[in-house]
Specification:
Elements: E1 2-3, E2 19-24, E3 29-35, H1 50-58, E4 64-65, E5 71-74, E6 78-83, E7 87-93, E8 98-107, E9 113-120, H2 122-141, E10 148-149, E11 157-161, E12 172-176, H3 178-183, H4 194-207, H5 213-222, E13 224-227, E14 234-237, E15 244-247, E16 258-263, H6 268-289
Antiparallel strand pairs: 1-10, 2-3, 3-7, 4-5, 5-6, 6-7, 8-9, 11-12, 12-16, 13-14, 14-15, 15-16
Helix pairs in contact: 2-6, 4-6
Length: 290
Amino acid sequence: MSTLNEYFNIMREDIPAWYEISWDDENKAIVVRVHRAVLNQLGLLTNEAPIIRILSTDIDLSDFVPFGESNWGFGQVLEQIGEDDKYISFRVSLPRVIWTISKAKREDRFGFKGLPERGYNWQAAYNLSASLNVLFLALAFSLREEIIWENEIPQLVNCKLQTSKESYGGALSIRLSKALVDWLAKYQVNEDIPEASEALFEAYSAMYEFKDEEAIAFNRHYLNARVLSIKQRITLNCPGDACGLDPDNMNEIRDRGYELVPHNTDTPIQQLTLLAGVAKLCDIYREDLA
């Protein structure tokens, strides 16, 4: 049993889970399951909350609908999909953000042929990023009262997202728990984690339509999750300028977690892709535990 008004650090000790993240491959969606004990914290996310007002002012987002409706968040992208005696589950389905309108290469007035014509829907991606941003913020930082909860599953990750149209506007940092890092010892140095790599590919390709088979092969190469040269230290990568998540340190420190920090995550496509890979890692952990 734990209380959230105590000092706690998932990188140093096992803390009962108050939320979980998961990858839904069938629906190409990220699922967040929130423990009922902390559900009231979502009531802090009103239209008058500073973070909601700031995001709504800085970015072209759809209207924010507070928790209480079956679908909520910016553009109501957080869909309530189920509940049990422990959790209420929310799903955010990844939208198509970039697609091909015409495969014919456009010719300019000098006769040079450029890229095929593409369509864009960035607002849909920013709605998802901003909604998950404020959800994780409420769960991690806005805990105002004593809350007591029990769970046999430890908290595996603590997620923090940034939502902006500036450089690094798709940044995210993920604290990996002691429990999750201990479990990563099952993988060898330089070993690929194929299930997480596949989730990265599926998430990215759900949002970004590849032009042809060559583009699919090229991008699949850059969508990967693997262990680095030090055991239990992992990296997740996606297309971009060396874009991905890397450990905040490469020290061989045992019996504690660490933080994955971003590099050149400028867009919500990159951010949500990497989050899907982390969610799949959590799925694999829970499957092994079962």
